[in-house]
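Revision sheet: structure tokens.
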Amino acid sequence: MDGPVIAEWIWFGFIVAMGACVGSFLNVVIYRLPREKSLVSPGSACPACDKPIRFYDNIPMLSWVLLRGKCRRCGAGISIRYFLVELLTALCFAGVYLWVFYFEGRQTGLEGGAMEQFFSGGWLFYLAVMTLIAAFLAASAIDLELWIIPIQICWFVTAVGIAASIASGWVLDADVLLRGSLFPGASAKIAAMAGGAAVGTAISLVAMRFGLIRPSYELDAAYEADKAINPDTPEPEYNDRKEIVKEIIFVLPIILCAVGAMKLIQLPALADKWTTFVEYPAVMYGFGSLAGYFSGCAVVWATRIIGTLAFGREAMGLGDVHLMGAAGAVIGPFWVVLAFFIAPFFGIAWALYQAIFKKIRQIPYGPFLSAAVFLVIIFYDSLKTLISNLYGTNLQ
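Predicted:
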């Protein structure tokens, strides 16, 4: 093999190893984050004997196989979940890299071979996408076990998505961004609405901070005290319709500010200046990511509000709202909404599986949403072509 081919193989091996290492960290996140433990210290230890795990027993995938799924010191079993998460993450890192840069299953707008595309700016897109996929893998595992989605995971993905979109204006040429549609762009109107929604969110958060808006499903101090003494203390009962009204009040400033901002930039004194401002790539894609965040939140939150008011019981969870907001910050407004409507098909497939094999295990909705987002990312070009042919529109 010649030098470039060897370099490609070495780099691909590094991608696989990096994925496995990220998977090892995800195992830490999955176990510690919902239990409010530090992700940094102490180091990894056996849950059974609490003895620190040596570095040579903490090699992703390999150590689990060599130890045959048991602790070297006490012989206690180590869940196969650790191995599977590391393996799945490594496969995702490798698979997405090959699909995007080698097989060109997702057009990047960049030229050259896989490594050339990656180091010519494709790395930024890869970083944003793999952050989303890895984080959603951890969120799904936590949701499957505990029926919660830690909001910290969603915030992290959102921050990375917005930061990467803004940075894309400096890392990649404008024509590459337009050809590849690697990051969500925004028109002047969409950018104004996203900016207005951000202002409205800040207003609602400040109002909540000063007690002008009450959070929904609030736990009082007496319950917290009882819970600390007796972990099995049942949660208080709520009137779901009344609680959802509190969320409607929280959302109102966001909607009003978004609409107000859209009207504001239509004023003759501001229209041309705002349009020119949004034409800068960093601004266009930064606001596009922000618009994706609010679109992802909106489609789930609207479903939650309407469903709760209609049926008198809590519909979907706020964790799902933040999850799809984070997805939207990476994949953009249209695609996150499309993913939301694809997710029920995964739910139907699970229901059919249960019906055929007589299973009764119910699982939360977060994994279905995550699977739909992953499908949209992987088959972006095919879906874009299909929708464009059906409706004659150009999508980004």
